[in-house]
Amino acid sequence: MKIIDNFLPKELFEEFSRNVISSEFNWSFSENDRSEETPYIDTLKLQSVFPDDEIIPHNLIQFIHPIYVPVRNYSGIHTKNEHMTMPVVEYTRSKIDWKVLLSAKVNMTFMHDKSYIMGFHNDYTFPVLTPEFKTGILYLNDTDGDTLLSTGERIQSVKNRFVYFPGDTIQHSGMTCTNSSKRTTINFNFI
Q1: Count of structural domains within the chain
Q2: How far apart are CA 93 and CA 151, in angstroms?
Q3: Distance CA 21, CA 38 (A)
Q4: Burial status of residue 2 (CB atoms within 10 A of its CB: 0-12, 13-18, 19 or more)
């Protein structure tokens, strides 16, 4: 695992953060049904790693903005807001020096009465095709909604912090926040 604070240049970070909450930025509603989700079973198993934290007791509601989604027979950026997202993607690529971007999206979850484990998972689900991929998370705001790793590590949600780790072997889970109206991150998966 590697953590880089103050990852994006200040001007780029502030511009992107403003864009994400602007009316021009498109979001899609997403609800994960915990009763049928395989990673939820993993979450029950991994809760023993974080015994003081509770699993979210209901379906997780969030908004997502796909930046790059792998689609058969297509290679390219999938976003209506490419002019807003590409500077961040390109800067991240230049700093991390990935060979292939597998997927990228912006996630936004909302304040809860207490901080809950959202569900351990791997972001990218094609490991046979992409062994040894990495997952990266860029935090867009300060919250108490940490990220938990299946290794027992906890990463604080600090604005402009970038963390990456082996996404093929380490599961992660976000936590809901209690001290901000929202928790916003960009998730990258890359080789």
Answers
A1: 1
A2: 26
A3: 32
A4: exposed
Please list, residue by residue across 34-58, b when 16 or more beta carbons sit within 10 angstroms of its beta carbon and e when fewer do.
beeeebbebbeebbebbeebebbee
CATH of the domain at 55: 2.60.120.10
First and final CA of the chain: distance in angstroms? 15
Q: Report pTM.
A: 0.88
Helix axes of 82-96 and 10-20: crossing angle, nearest 10 degrees? 140
Range of the domain at 55: 2-190
Per-residue pLDDT tens digits for 132-184: 899 999 999 999 999 999 999 999 999 999 999 999 889 999 999 999 999 99
How far is Cα of residue 41 from the mean position of the Cα atoms in its chain? 20
Residue type, 149: L
Say if residues 115 and 151 touch (Cβ distance below 8 Å): no
96 and 138 Cβ atoms separated by less than 8 Å: no
The two tokens of residue 169 are 């072997």
